[in-house]
From TrEMBL, chain A:
It comes from Azospirillum rugosum. This is Pyruvate dehydrogenase E1 component alpha subunit. It comes from the Bacteria. CDD domains: TPP_E1_PDC_ADC_BCADC. Its cofactor is thiamine diphosphate. SUPFAM superfamilies: Thiamin diphosphate-binding fold (THDP-binding). The lineage of its organism: Bacteria, Pseudomonadati, Pseudomonadota, Alphaproteobacteria, Rhodospirillales. The keyword Cytoplasm does not apply. Residues 20-316 form the Dehydrogenase E1 component domain. GO terms for molecular function: pyruvate dehydrogenase (acetyl-transferring) activity.
TrEMBL record, chain B:
InterPro entries: THDP-binding (IPR029061), Transketo_C/PFOR_II (IPR009014), Transketolase-like_Pyr-bd (IPR005475), Transketolase_C (IPR033248). This is Pyruvate dehydrogenase E1 component beta subunit. Keywords: Oxidoreductase, Pyruvate. One of its GO terms (molecular function) is pyruvate dehydrogenase (acetyl-transferring) activity. Residues 5-189 form the Transketolase-like pyrimidine-binding domain. It comes from the Bacteria. It comes from Azospirillum rugosum.
Amino acid sequence: MTENPFPLDRDDLLKAYRIMRTIREFEERLHIDFAKGDIPGFVHLYAGEEASAAGIMMHLKDNDRIASTHRGHGHCIAKGVDVHEMMAEIYGRSTGACRGKGGSMHIADLSKGMMGANGILGAGAPLACGAALAAKVRGDGGVGISFVGDGASNQGMFLESLNLAAVWNLPAIFVVENNGYAESTARDWAVAVDSYIDRASGFGLPGVTVDGTDFFAVYEAAGEIIRRAREGGGPALLECNMVRFYGHFEGDAQTYRAKGEVEAIRASRDCIKIFAERVIEAGVISRAELEAIDKEVLDLIEDAVRAAKSAPLPAPAELLTDVYVAY
Amino acid sequence: MARKISMKQAINEALDLEMTRDPSVIVMGEDIVGGTGSPGEDDAWGGVLGVTKGLHAKHGNRLMDTPLSESAYIGAAIGAATCGLRPVAELMFIDFMGVCFDQIFNQAAKFRYMFGGKAETPVVIRAMVGAGFRAAAQHSQMLTPIFTHIPGVKVVCPSNAYDAKGLLIQSIRDNDPVIFCEHKNLYGLECDVPAESYAIPFGEANVLRDGGDVTIVSYGLTVHRAMEAAEALAKDKVEAEVIDLRTLSPIDWDTVIDSVERTGRLVVVDEAHPRCSIASDVAAFVGQNAFGALKAGVQMVTAPHVPVPFSPVLEDLYIPNAAAIADAARRTLAPTGTSPRSIAA
C-alpha cells in the first residue's frame, strides 16, 4: 500500500468523499426535480461548495454546533442530518426533519448540533455565539460555528457577533463562504475590503483565507482554528473562496454571470473532482472505491426522493401544533 | 415571610433565587454588572437603574456585561437557550428592540414551530417599558402589542413587586421565549412580597377589585390608574371590577369574559398606542365572544397615536390617567345616545 500523504486516514478520506458526493447528488437531484415543479417554495443549492462543509464538519462532534444559512443543505448533510428526513422536509412531508413545517430554508436537527438553516442572512452568527457561550459555560470543549455567505458578511448581526465573540473570548468560528455572489451582486462590488482577513483583524480576530475548492486546505485550516477554539484560544474567521454551480435560487436565470462561467468552473474548480484526482493520484484510494460510493449515494438519493414523494403530508391539525412548549 | 420590598428588589430577588437554584441560569446585558473592565468599582451600576446590583458579587461570571450590541447578545442568549442554558438577557429599554428584533421574532419565536416541535428556547428578555420617566420618544414606549402579535413568544407585564417576583421566576422556568416587561415607573413601588421562592402561572389575570357595574381591564402602570378611577367611581355609587391581566400572551380571556358577562360594560386601559393594541385586542375579543352581554359599546383608554413627548407637561397628558378612565366608565353607563359630557356633569 502506498504511504498516505494526507492528514486523514483512508476511512476518513472515504467518509469525506461520501459527504461531498452526497451533497452533490442531493443538490443535482433537487435541481432536476424543482424544474419539474415537484418542490414548493425557494431552494438554494450548495453544489460546488461541498469542500467547505465537509472540510470543516469532519472535525466536529454532535456537541459542536453550527448555525447555517439559506444555502444549508450541504451543512446539514455534513453535520449528519438524515438525508431521508431532509428530502421529505423539502417535499413538505410529515416525515421531514421539521415535520414539513420548515422547508429547505429551515432544516434543523439540534440532536446533531445543527441549529438550523436560516432564511435571514447573518442571523446565524449571534446564535452560534450563543452555542459557543453554552459550551464555554459548561466547559465541554464544544465550539459554535457560524456560516455566512459573502453577502451576509455585510450584515450588522454578523459584524456585531465578531466583536462579541472576541470580547467574550468565545469558542466561536465564523466561516465566510465566498462564492463570489451576494445573490446576483458581485462580492467584489459589495464588500469593500479585498480580504476577510482585514475584516477579522478589524475586530481583533485571527483570519485565514483558503481555496474553498480544495478540501485539504479547508480541512487543515479549520482543524487548526477549531483546535485553538477548543483550547480556549478564542474565535477566528475562516474565508473559503469557492464557486456556486447554480443560481442564487432555483429558477434564477443567472444572466448576471459571464458567458461560459459555470461551464468553466465546473471543468476546473469542481472540488469533488479535485479531491478525487488527488487521492487517486496519490494511490491512497482507487477510482473503483470512489465509484462504489457514487453508486451507493445515487441509490440513497433515489430512495430518499421515492420515500419523500410517497410520505404522508402533514395532517391539517399540524397547522396549530408546536408553537409553544406550553401555552 | 412577607416584607415590603420594591418591584426593583423583587426582580433582583427572583434572579438571585433562580441563579442559586439552577446553574444553567445566566444573566447578561448592557451594564448589568456595570464597570466591567473599567478602573473603578466592580458592580458599579448593577444595571442602568440598579436592578441587578449585588448579583455579580454572589454569582460571579454567570452575570455578564455585554458590549452595546443588542443583536449579538440577544441572539447569543437565544442561541445558548437552544443549547440547554436558561439565559436571562436584559434589553435595557424595550425601545432598543428595533436593533435586535430579527433575533426575537424571526429566530426565537419561530424555532419550535419551524423545526417541527424539536426545539426549546427557554430565554427571558427583560426590558423596561413605559412612559413617565421624562425619557422621551426612544426610551419610553409601551411596545407590548408588537410582541403579543408574534406567535411563539410570551409576554409578561407585572404591575407590582409581588407579581414581578413570581412571574419572573415562572418566566425563567418556562420553556418558551418570554418578553418580560418592567415598567420603570413601578420600580420603586413597594408591596408585601414573601422572601421565599414562588411562581405565578401565566395566563391568570388578577381581579384587584370586585364590582358589578363595569369591568376595567389593564396591565402594568395603568392598573394603578384604573384603581384610582374605581375609587372615584365608587363615590358615585358605581362599582368597577378591576382586572390586571399580568400576562398578555397568553392572556386570561376567561376572567375578562366572566366579568363582562356580569357587568355588561367594559373599559380597556392600555399605555400602548390605540391601533392594534392590547386594548383593541381585548375589545375585539369581547365583541366577538360576549356581544350579547354588552349593555354599551366597549371603551378604550390608551395613549394617543403619537410618539412619547419629552416635556413633562405633555408626557403627563400622554399617559392614560384616572380621570380619563373614570370618564370612559361613565360613558358605558350613559343611556344610549346620551352625551358623556352630560353624564360627567
